[in-house]
Write the structure tokens for this entry.
Amino acid sequence: MAGIENTASLAAAEADVTRDAARRLDVIFRGGAGVFSILVLLIAWELFARSGRVTAFMLPPFSAVVERIYSDGASGDLWINLGRTLYRAMAGFVIAAVGGITLGALMSRNRLIRWFFDPIISVGFPMPKIAFLPVIILWLGLFDVSKISIVVFDAIFPVVTATLAGIASVDKELIWSALNMGASDREVMWQIKLPAALPQILTGLQVALPISLIVAIIGEMVMGGYGLGGAMMSASRFADSRGVFAGIVEIAIVGYALIKAMAVIRRRLLMWHQETAERS
């Protein structure tokens, strides 16, 4: 019997090692596939730009764009523009996150508030809010307050809808159990509804974050001033194609970094949730 038990335990240990190795290989393969596709794209860009089929003005080589990014970083212009863009995007995102979660929670609790805001959310969510940029310029001018305002106006809608959907999907038995145990409406909201709705709220925030960056850059392109969008438009006016493509690469890197950072935050906040357990 002891020999059989030892054999079974060894088989179970080997199975665990095999599963761990397969999981690690899967993670490496998925990460490597993403890096490989980007490398292929960059190599194709470099080769095509140097093939002579297009001019350096139409498509500068990737190596020349990297040199321009390095030059902007050494001069300090890159960090000034990057800082201004991140400030506007993140300020608008934070305001939209706090306001959207608050409004969504209030709409879920109060019928009058929901009656008033529900048609506004339903009409405003699918429409391109960037169309209101001329109105915001007329009202607030060309300063940071107008650029942040358009970010908030555009990013708040997915947060509100995600909060509403998340709270509506909370298991009613949990709410009834808490109420029967004497919990107040406020305690139910803070201790039951919002924690249970957190995965969907974070999904709304993950949607709102790239929107914030995109709208901030568009606002800089239209209104001018420091920022990655403003630098791209300034380079375009002076026919500086390397500067334009450098801005595209910089925006892509910043957007990727923000999305990855938000994914890490999601995993940290949902350590207790089933989706994190399944991934691990």
Remarks:
- Residues 2-49 form the longest helix (48 residues).
- The mean pLDDT is 84.
